[in-house]
Amino acid sequence: MASLGVALVTGCTQGIGRAIATRLAKDGFTLSLNDLPSKDAELQALASELTFEGHVSVESDVQRMVVSHVEQLGSLDMVANAGICITKGILSTSSEEWDRIAAVNGRGTFLCYKYAAKQMIDQGHGGRIIGATSLAGKQGFASLSAYSASKWTVRGLTQSAAHEFGKYGITVNAYAPGIIDTDMGMRSGFLSPSLNHDIMRVSQYERKSAVRRNGTPADIASVVSYLASKESSYITGIDNAPDAHFDCFPY
Fold first, then answer.
1. How far apart are CA 185 and CA 187, in angstroms?
2. What Gene Ontology terms for biological process does this UniProt record contain (predicted)?
3. Would you say 67 and 61 are in contact if contact means Cβ atoms under 8 Å apart?
4. Residue 192: how many other CB atoms lie within 10 Å
5. What does the pLDDT look like over 124-148, one tens digit per residue?
6. CA 63, CA 139: separation in Å to the nearest integer?
7. Which residue, 231, 147, 233, is CA-closest to 190?
8. By percentage, how much of the chain surpasses pLDDT 70?
9. At 74, is the pLDDT very low, low, confident or very high (cuts 50, 70, 90)?
């Protein structure tokens, strides 16, 4: 089967990022994978193509990642990236914690969008850029202040980038999951049965979900698969919310 194109996936060693990489490989994309150096073992276990270690919030790392990708694979047709989460209220969040989540989720997305778009524009045949926002990027939640702010950033950036890059045949979209059954979901507190009452317990979420279950990484990967496809060429600037209609309920 001929490759559908070359996809760069960041934050790919676990959870949603891993599911996206696996799904795109099954779809027929040639993959280039990125994660932190500390995730080297996981990268090597996942990789069947190429891996690049680096931090998406470091501009030189992102530049090197894109250049290395193109040198070895010839082009860049699609980018998807994930993020991080911390669970703390405003009063208990330190400036360092705020800066860290803003750097990875906000600055990291900006840099990936910027350098991916530059490469796609130079290639002259368009492309797909897909970012990671969240239900928390559509409404605020207690104890997710820094995370929510960073995901609102991604939402606005995605809409602006869609306007700027559309004339080059580049679509820019984001996926905005509800609560997904991942390690990050556990760490965030949403899926932990021992939560304090500032965050919704998993059973409460399930009751408010229209389909009465938690989301899975595969649910999100299927959305990214469509946004990466040729069939999505008239869709840009959206933040698709695979959240089982949870956002219509108060929490």
1. 6
2. fatty acid biosynthetic process
3. no
4. 15
5. 999 999 999 988 888 888 888 999 9
6. 33
7. 147
8. 74
9. confident
